[in-house]
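Help!! Second protein's tokens look totally different from the first
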Amino acid sequence: MSRTLSARPRSLELAAEAAECVQRATVARGGRAPVLAAVAATEDVAALIYMEQLLKQAATAGFTVKKISLPATASEGEITTALERLSADADVAGIILQSPLPEGVDRTRVVTGIAVEKDIDGITAASAARLSAGDLDGTLLPATAAAVMELLRAHQIEIHGRRAVVVGRSDVVGRPVAQLLALAGAHVEVVHSKTPDMGAVTRTAQILVVAAGVCALVRGEHVSPGCVVVDVGIHVQGDQIVGDVDEASVRDAVGETGALSPVPGGVGPMTNAILVLQAAQSALRLAGA
């Protein structure tokens, strides 16, 4: 049986670190807890449940949480204005823009309303530019990409000098995780669901990150023995939550020397822990603590 790359216990350690940072920021602010704010303009039930879970986790860390619920028909101007108001609020330490956005709304335009120092999901152009330049000192990283890296480190997976393949090229996960892997010394190649003979590339991977948003895209025939596979996908199938990887066939293919992150229990909870921690670190910086 292959190894399982679970978020715990590392995600719990990050949660404790976040709580400590929030406590210090609260003291520095004269006893006023910093605020983590989320903006949602969707009726997607799964997205709203996720946002509530994240805000609950932030409240447990000591944040005051604020939820801005806009109509699923909200315009770019309405969403941008809500983000700009939160950016101007001195009590707000971190801002999350929940996906999906209303049809026709351009994410790259509305996120200009998020102040870079409060961009705890690393989605603004300024955050992306710092990452592209290799500047990780104080940069708020795209949380899911950072969660992938944290998961690999937590399980002591060697990255430097290894061949890594990323399936998916989105600005949210695929591109930033490829950049972070390269900065960690991996030899990185990016493919996607339409890449001809994708398996010819993925079978060369020692580390395979699957973030294509396609259920069970990667199967046993796409991986080699000993590969470490990180599944970023999340899909609801009836009463089950599954990923971009077909778990049974991939576990068989990678064998006892390989590893696979579970869905749920892998990248998802680590991402939440990273988001809350980055918000806590932002709160410390803004409080001058």
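Here's the second one for comparison:
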Amino acid sequence: MRLVASVVLLFSSFLWLVPANAATADQSASQISSQQVEFEKPLYKPFIERYVLDELKALRTELAASKIEFETRLAQRELKAGDRALSYVTDAMTYFFYLIAIVSSLLVIVGWNSMRDIKEKAHNMASEKVTELVSQYEKRLKEIEKDLRLTARDIDENREEIEKTQELHSLWLRASQEPLFVNKIPIYDQILALNPSDGEALTYKADAALEQDEPKWAINLCQQALVIDPENSHAFYQLACAYTALDALEDATNYFRSALSLNESYRGEARTDKALEPLLNHQPFIELLENPIAE
């Protein structure tokens, strides 16, 4: 703005001087004509050029000063920006080192005063955790192994029991299909060899002994069955048949009464059983068949 004002002032001064110079020229011409002196060039032109040159010089000087001032201010701002950046970096580094110092102090306070201590403690913690996990898994594996052993033992026992049951079933099936009583006795012996506490096998063997006309042997077998099961009704019935074969009707009647007290179905079977035919003429036996047993 200052430069523009200077240019306008110079231009207005030039316009103002032109008429004045013209009037001065007329007066000088009249004086020259009166004095009869002739000049080759007017005297005012060098002064105007000098004024214009001075103004241009002043403008150039002012422009140079303005440029220098602008560059100086720009340099100062760049310097301030650089100072601010440097100050920010310095503060950041200072805070970072402060943070490292604080962390190091905390590590020293809790006992981790070096990276080696941190590494050792980390390894110890990991080792303790791994040891704990290993012990837990070992305990679980031992329990699983124990359960597997028990399960395997139960499976073996069940397998043996199943095989034994299948064999007993096969022997009972053979005994039921065997028409001769003399051949049934060895089968019952095999059953008793597999299961000595089978009272039913003893009573059926006693039945086969009665068919072989061996009442004393049958009595012995029935007594063994009653030791195993005191409420074996079939054993009492076979004892009644055996004592009937020995003509001990009173004993036969008493054993039949015991069988009948346990199983009422023997009442009808006794009427058709040939082994008990001698009792059909025995009055206590007849009364026993006709009258219910008093509880």
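Reply: Different proteins will give different token patterns, so don't panic. The chain has ten helices and no strands.
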